[in-house]
Structure formats: structure tokens, C-alpha cells
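Kindly review this protein for my students:
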Amino acid sequence: MSLPSQSVALLQAARDLVKSLPADAVLLLTETSLDWDEVGRMLSGCKLFVAAENPALTKPLRDHADWTVIELDAEPLPIQERMNSALLKAVTDNVLQPGAHIVALYNGIATLEGAPEPVDSLSVIHLGEHLERMTAQDLRVLGDAAPIDVLRAVVDLATEIGREGREGQPIGTILVVGDTRKVLSLSHFQNFNPFRGYSRAERDVRKRDVREQIKEIAKLDGAILIGRDGIAEAACLHLGARGDGVSLRKGFGSRHMAAAGISKQTSAVAFAVSQSSGSVRVFQNGDEVLHIEPLARPHVWQPFKLETQEPDAPPPAAE
């Protein structure tokens, strides 16, 4: 089985880019079977990551010494989300560094619906920027659970706790946002409430200094409750919501079960920060709706916009 001329041209371009940039690796996302011997010859000397939704496509590659196979969940996702998932898994598994430069080969032009599509596109990805730059659209899955500026602030807080820990030690916690009355009715305090007696301005998580203080409070046992308006209401909370109807994957402990349970029994959104890995999982209606890995630098929030062709600038006026 020979490669189509289009694939040959793209593989040659990827190899040349790896050498000239230089780049660290090639990521190949495929939906169809390829002549892997020919792929190997074309990408000789390149570190290669191969990802596919269909495990049958990558099964013969797992014994290849110089290639890394990335397993993707078998669900119909846009190519951008599949690429993000593959890169995140590679970083999480420590087979790729967060600051690496990647040449990605993939199908970027949709053809027939439901039909496997050949590789037709190439992108150069600076991984640190790609994974750390999030837009407001990444929080669209949470709907109107809270204003976007509050959600941004809580994401920043959760990822910083996961990445930094406190005093050199990793810590885990739960941040619950919204439906404060019902959350409190289903919970009880394990200690005094450290937010009691402070003004609203002194409890607003949208302020950097307030988030820094909450990082200290996160060392205490129990969840932290934040109102839909971004005002921290309580800490040291034992979440008493039952986990009825909640189904979590193997490996999750009581912290993730508590976060999923409170999001199931209320309209709140729960952010569970893992003490072991620092990853942040966001639960809504009992389901995990967002997974954020702690990377080397803080997230850089960018406005979501469409790029347009700028008109030619007029020449500068003569002085």
C-alpha cells in the first residue's frame, strides 16, 4: 500500500520542518490506515507520536521502538479537541515536555460525513503557548453557571493550587461555585469559617490578593464555597451530598466523589484539585465536564475573536 502523493508531500514537509526549526517531534493524527513502513522512511530521524480513535489503526505500531502511540477516546470530537487531548496525554505521561515544539499532521478539511478522512493539513505548534492559552470559549460547557469573569478567576485559583501547592507541599481541595444556600444546607463546618467577619471586597476571588489568601485557606480540610457573584462564603466545609447517580472512572477518590455529588444534588459547579497530580476536574450535574492539567506557567486568557484581513495602513504623515 503506497502513500498518496499528498501524504508524501506533507511528510516531507514535516521532516524538513523538524530539522530546520528545529522541532522536537511530529504528531500524526490519522483516521485511515497508512503504509507505516513508508511513513517510517519518510520521517527517519524524527521522534513520532501517532494518535487515532480506532485502536486497530495503531495496534501494529506499539512495538516500534522510536514511536509513541497515544490512545484517544473513541468518541466523535472535532479535530482540534482530539489534537488537544493527544498533546495533553503526552505531557501528562511525561513523554513530551510542556515547552516542546511540534509539527502536527492531521485532517483539517471535512469531506463526507462519517467517512474516514486522509491527512491533508500541517501545523507547527509551540506547545507551551498552545496548551496554556485558553479563551472564554473553553468555559462554554459550564453554560451560565456563573459570570465568565468569576469562572476565569476560579480556574486560575484552582490551577495555581494544583501547580504550586503550598510551602513546597502538594495540596488538594474542592472549590464549589454557586447555589450557596443549598450547598450549605447539605454540608457542615469541620472548623470555624475563616471568611466570617470580612467585607465582600475582602472576599472577592476576582482579586489577585484575595486568591493568594484563599491558597493559604486551601491547606485546611474541607471544601471552599464561592458565590455565583465571586464572593467567597465559607471554607472548611464537609460536603454531605450523597453520590447517588454519580459514576466516576476508577482511580478517583473521595474528593472527586464529593465534588461530583454536590454538583449532582445542587446547581453548583465543583472544581476538584487532585493532591497527587495537581490536575483540576470540573463537575456539573454529577458529570466531569472539563479537565485541566497543571502546566509549567499560568494560563494566559485571551479574548475569542476571528482573525480578519487588516486594511493596509496609510503612510505616515510628513513632519
Q: What stands out?
A: Confidence is low (pLDDT under 50) at residues 305-312.
